[in-house]
């Protein structure tokens, strides 16, 4: 970065991260988006940050009154009542009085009034920060796009002489040439959007400092705008250490080669009710004995149900929560973007020193988190890479469609995310429905290439000896005679 370039905070922490540190002093920024996306509110955060730093700030507005702006800010905890305001909107008398202009173009009068008002306000107030909401109101009083460009250029030079940092807002209008002009002249462009996937924010241009690419999560909460940049794995020179995560169940630990390595991603797949969550919880309970802390994110059941089910099979979830070695977080459906969920996980790791994160389960995640399923899976992969870079072990439960047998290791082609895959399945044996458990994948270390009977009892999980002399288990119908054509498992 050029040592002569200085930056200031935008008032929104996550946005400063996207801007690679903040806004460049003395530059003009365009915040663009459809109505209701948060353009004005972002400008208000910018001014509020200036007021916190004892700076002088000016709000130039033309569509809403000062009272309306302050009321809207108060609703989300943003206070800019100490800012200076310049209202360029028409007075209410405009609609009741008959204005006439003799021998001059009406736009000439309005243009001179706008220009003089802005010039006088800035000379008198000498602001450090200015918001113009919207910048397009200046276009309406110019004769053509050429004149508008000249006016904006002149305005920018005037502001830069005083090192004034400016945020302007505009609603995109591709059919208008001046929309392109504003984007071209702006030193930075912040684009806001709102759709089925929730609110999104993107910095598409930032002179001098550069920007984080891509679109990112954004929400408007009780405290105003919150921006959630996509998490990026942290660089580490820490060598890989084979510290094993064990279940404490002899048969299961033998099956998985004494344990799964920590700092890896383990999928526990299987049909509904097979015991995926209980198996994951068993790993976390055993880890607690070694002083490790775990957090489980529940997407498909509430905390009370989860706690009751775990306690009923002898896993002391309540005690672990009281001791601080296990925390549970219930995720409300459609309440979060994938980025906000990722930052929720990050905050808990920072605050609690979490060693193990369990996401229960993928189906609930893709339903509960807003966004396209393909994008959500990509973001989940990014989250697991980030967690591994922080030294965190990840457990993920994944429900597959087959009740008996198994034709695919994971749902939605998620195998590439997993370092390890354990699976549960129902089978029919001796006229009754039984469960089996096996391992399909383990990137580090060996494991048994067999299946074992799996059972959940009042005393906990029981895993039996390897099942031998049986064929067709993965098809759900074990038999003692070897078939001539054995179907292969699709691990994709």
Automatic annotation (TrEMBL):
<feature type="domain" description="KaiC">
    <location>
        <begin position="6"/>
        <end position="241"/>
    </location>
</feature>
<dbReference type="InterPro" id="IPR030665">
    <property type="entry name" value="KaiC"/>
</dbReference>
<dbReference type="InterPro" id="IPR010624">
    <property type="entry name" value="KaiC_dom"/>
</dbReference>
<keyword id="KW-0808">Transferase</keyword>
<dbReference type="GO" id="GO:0005524">
    <property type="term" value="F:ATP binding"/>
</dbReference>
<dbReference type="InterPro" id="IPR014774">
    <property type="entry name" value="KaiC-like_dom"/>
</dbReference>
<keyword id="KW-0418">Kinase</keyword>
<dbReference type="GO" id="GO:0016787">
    <property type="term" value="F:hydrolase activity"/>
</dbReference>
<feature type="domain" description="KaiC">
    <location>
        <begin position="243"/>
        <end position="477"/>
    </location>
</feature>
<dbReference type="InterPro" id="IPR027417">
    <property type="entry name" value="P-loop_NTPase"/>
</dbReference>
<keyword id="KW-0677">Repeat</keyword>
<keyword id="KW-0378">Hydrolase</keyword>
<dbReference type="Pfam" id="PF06745">
    <property type="entry name" value="ATPase"/>
</dbReference>
<dbReference type="InterPro" id="IPR003593">
    <property type="entry name" value="AAA+_ATPase"/>
</dbReference>
<keyword id="KW-0597">Phosphoprotein</keyword>
<protein>
    <recommendedName>
        <fullName>non-specific serine/threonine protein kinase</fullName>
        <ecNumber>2.7.11.1</ecNumber>
    </recommendedName>
</protein>
<dbReference type="GO" id="GO:0004674">
    <property type="term" value="F:protein serine/threonine kinase activity"/>
</dbReference>
<dbReference type="InterPro" id="IPR051347">
    <property type="entry name" value="Circadian_clock_KaiC-rel"/>
</dbReference>
């Amino acid at each position: 970065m050029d040592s002569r370039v200085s930056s200031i905070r935008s008032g929104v922490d996550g946005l400063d991260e996207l801007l690679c540190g903040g806004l460049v002093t003395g530059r003009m920024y365009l915040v663009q988006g459809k109505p209701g996306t948060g353009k004005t509110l972002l400008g208000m955060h910018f001014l509020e940050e200036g007021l916190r730093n004892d700076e002088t700030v000016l709000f130039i507005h033309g569509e809403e009154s000062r009272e309306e702006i302050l009321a809207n800010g108060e609703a989300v905890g943003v206070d800019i009542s100490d800012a200076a305001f310049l209202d360029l909107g028409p007075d209410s008398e405009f609609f009741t009085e008959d204005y006439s202009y003799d021998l001059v173009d009406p736009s000439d009068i309005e243009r001179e009034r706008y220009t003089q008002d802005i010039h006088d306000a800035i000379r008198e107030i000498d602001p450090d920060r200015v918001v113009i909401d919207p910048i397009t109101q200046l276009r309406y009083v110019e004769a053509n796009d050429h004149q508008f460009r000249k006016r904006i250029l002149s305005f920018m030079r005037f502001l830069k002489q005083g090192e004034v940092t400016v945020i302007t807002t505009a609603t995109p209008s591709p059919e208008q040439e001046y929309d392109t002009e504003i984007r071209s002249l702006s030193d930075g462009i912040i684009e806001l959007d709102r759709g089925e996937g929730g609110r999104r924010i993107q910095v598409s241009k930032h002179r001098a400092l550069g920007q984080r690419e891509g679109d990112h999560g954004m929400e408007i909460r009780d405290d105003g705008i919150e921006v959630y940049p996509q998490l990026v794995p942290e660089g580490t020179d820490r060598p890989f250490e084979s510290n094993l995560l064990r279940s404490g169940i002899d048969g299961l630990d033998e099956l998985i080669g004494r344990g799964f390595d920590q700092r890896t991603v383990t999928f526990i797949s299987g049909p509904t009710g097979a015991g995926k969550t209980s198996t994951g919880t068993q790993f976390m309970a055993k880890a607690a004995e070694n002083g490790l802390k775990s957090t489980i994110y529940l997407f498909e059941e509430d905390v009370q149900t989860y706690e009751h089910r775990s306690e009923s099979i002898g896993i002391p979830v309540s005690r672990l929560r009281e001791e601080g070695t296990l925390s549970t977080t219930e995720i409300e459906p459609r309440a979060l973007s994938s980025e906000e969920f990722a930052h929720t996980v990050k905050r808990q790791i920072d605050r609690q020193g979490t060693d193990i994160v369990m996401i229960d389960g993928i189906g609930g995640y893709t339903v509960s988190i807003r966004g396209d399923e393909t994008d959500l899976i990509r973001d989940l992969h990014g989250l697991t890479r980030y967690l591994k870079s922080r030294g965190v072990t990840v457990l993920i439960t994944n429900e597959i469609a087959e009740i008996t047998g198994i034709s695919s290791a994971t749902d939605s082609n998620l195998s590439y995310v997993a370092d390890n895959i354990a699976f549960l399945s129902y089978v029919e044996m001796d006229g009754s429905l039984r469960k089996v458990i096996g391992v399909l994948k383990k990137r580090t270390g060996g494991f048994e290439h067999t299946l074992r009977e799996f059972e959940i009892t009042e005393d906990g999980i029981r895993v039996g000896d390897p099942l031998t002399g049986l064929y067709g288990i993965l098809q759900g119908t074990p038999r003692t005679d070897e078939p001539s054509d054995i179907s292969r498992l699709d691990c994709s």
